[in-house]
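Aggregate trends can hide what the representation actually does to any particular protein. For completeness, the protein is quoted in full, as a sequence line and a line of structure tokens.
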Amino acid sequence: MVGNQLGWFSAGQSQSEEGADYPGPGSGEATITIESGDYGTLIGQKLYEADVVKSIEAFTRAFDANPAAASIRPGTYTLKLQMSAAQAVEALLDDANRTDNAVMVIPGETYNQVRDSMLAMDKFSAEDVKKAFDDPAALGLPDVANNNLEGWLFPGAYEITPESTPQSILTEMVSATVDFLEEQEVPESDWMRVLTEASIVEREVVYTDEMPKVARVIENRIADTTEVHGVLGMDSTVLYGVGKVGGIPTQADIEDDNPYNTRLNKGLPPGPIANPSQDAILAVLNPAEGDWLYFVTVNLDTGETLFTNNFEEHTANIKKFQQWCSDNPGRCN
């Protein structure tokens, strides 16, 4: 395994002059795409096939000799033909040679926000982007998703290659979500529940270490039959139901009767409200131990959040938040 990763036993190596290197500096131009997860030998294979380096072994040797080589980022690079291996490594470390062609999915974004980001990049036509988002069945969504993309676009950076289409990139995002759920051995029958809870966790708190607490609050509230009676009462879902992605719900928002209003409807909403991170998913799979039924963020700048199982304490905590809003005019509107 180690030998293969280092390129010692690459099938392509037999076709090159073993260990040979160009003197450089090279000439002409080659476009190389480095994908996430590419190791030194895989990068060397691509450079060798494009005649950027003379042998995979020479590139691997230069890669191992450069301490910074491990930080080579995925992307599309413009390099010279017939460079020395050491120069090729240096060129890959120079952002001036890299085209920043990544579609970013930020944890907590909705699929509409991801779509807007793709449109803003001006890499695809608006028609192709719309077509891809309007045909979720073609993106490899599992049946349990009910053709709803929300929650299934795994956060991360997705490189745009010359062959990329909006459909191929979205398919990669969906596949990454499915792969992660399978890696965590989540039964397919639980995928929607896990993603739905994780999306709420993602939108409710700032700090990663508080996510397992929020996941526990969700479980406690759904199971409760005496105090909250299975009502989640999450602001994030209320906002999603009226088409908002942030802020504080207005009274009109709270009273809007839609399936995502968890102040009016018991249990979970019908699906995810955003694309959750790995941390949020893991929090749902491993919730903290506790009997909390309430929490409130009392400082929007620091994200400080207070948890309790006592309604009176919760009421006092809400007053702390209201005081923060009073001290910071315009921040809670």
About this structure: The first helix runs from residue 2 to 6. The CA atoms of residues 196 and 272 lie 4 Å apart. The chain has three domains: 2-99, 102-183, 190-327. DSSP finds 13 helices and seven strands in the chain.
